[in-house]
Task: structure prediction
Amino acid sequence: MVRTPLAIAILVAATLAAGTEAKAYVCGSRYLVENPERACLPLGKPVHTVKSAADIQVGTRLDFPVATQVLLRSATCRQRGDHCYVFVEDGQWDTDGGPILQRDVDGLVNLFEKSTPADPDRGIRALADETLGPPPDVDNDPRIFILLLNLTDPNLVGFFDSRVATWPDPALRRDVICLDTGFLYTNSNLVRGTLAHEYQHLVQWGHDPDEETWINEGLSGYAEELAGYPEADPAMVPAFLAYPELNLTLWPSRATSANYGETYLYASFMAERYGREFIRALVSEPRNGIAGIEGALAAVGKARSFQATWEDWLVGNCAGSDPVLGYTALRGRTAATIEAPDLPFVHLGAGLNYQWGALNVLFRHRGALSTDLEAEAAGLFTLLGYAHQGGAGTRVDGVVDADGSVRLTTTQVDSLVLIVGRVAPQGTQFWLSARPVVPTWVTGADLPARPVQLGAAYPNPFNGQIQVPFTLDAASPVQVAVLDGLGRQVRQLAAGYWPAGAHHLTWDGCDDRGHAVASGTYLVCLTLGPRRQTVRLTLAR
Result:
């Protein structure tokens, strides 16, 4: 049997994706771990100290140990809020010849405590406390320290360093996030997103300090989105979507933008599908990695495995702006595909180098299609499909045959993205076959069942209350929620077991806390098992 390599183009695409990545920013906390030779902490005893938090006022001067710095750095408190201090390194303040002005400091306090682009009424601290959980308190001071200084290393925008939080000398032991003054001057949005990113690291360290890096970094990427700074590094998501073969759960010793983009997208997808309560459960879950994901799912009452959520996410990455199968963080983008050769073809070989990675093959064939995947052993790969017809997308799952191969069949599609996902740590090779098929007949019984139908909401636009109708063919457990433009839950309208028949729900334009939400576009999302339907609403106050 001749087995021809599927696509030299696959290798070419992977090489291009790995070799043409734009200049990107790395997480400062991770950079310190990956570059210990550059991350030594200074020695020395503090000269400027205080006895209690009450002694710290605007004008107070303190010494800070800072990674990459040779000596303790002296800085002065330039603003004190309810939940944070902002200290500026001596020499970096405007009147000392530095780039930092009072408005820069006041802006950071406002961002942290009062208002974010995501929510004008809540700062990073309030959003994170609600979604991630409370921060640690290693210094008996409820405020965290935001330290602005010249970090000198061009790779560093900011970082949280847990070694300072555990410093032997209590006078230097603080909950502190360092931010670079140069970047604050030249790219303030990047620094603001970094503050949200590094604050998540601080919170995560307080709840589960040994969490696996892929989850920790994914949650920090999500924290940027939570505050209204999604993709503070604009290179990370495109880098991953260009190379979806990367292992989601493997964080390399020298991570690239693609690793940050991949883990962020998965975290944002999980938050959108399972709610912020899932994210909070994940942060506090003592088990790590995949076990932690499944523990957090169980904690919020979701009987789903990690692999099932990963498969949902793979389909979502190919669905883009599909209102049912896609997700908001993609913003209409999709994972890269390899063009399939002309049909039919038999035993075309390919490789997938990483577990929990995917390869996507695009078939432009119109009509019915049958594809088969063979591997060295059963259970090494999963086979999924995103089928498109008449402007609508549908998920199709492969079925394992008696010989261990996986077959996926579609009927009457305009195009199909075939998704090969590797679920086992061993076995890289697989072989694909594909052929068009002609259905003998199609009857109503052959059509996929539609056990739930979400109707058009009315009146739409609205400024008081809106009715949301839906119909169930059979009694089923359903969830209905209102989401904002970033896919975050605003209000849960229903969660429970509903009888068959026609139903309607009412939304009064308020969030789960009873506060009126702002004018804008919202989505009502109805979830029934793996099925999701959405309808768009416009609130005009």
In short: The radius of gyration is 26 Å. The first helix runs from residue 8 to 19.
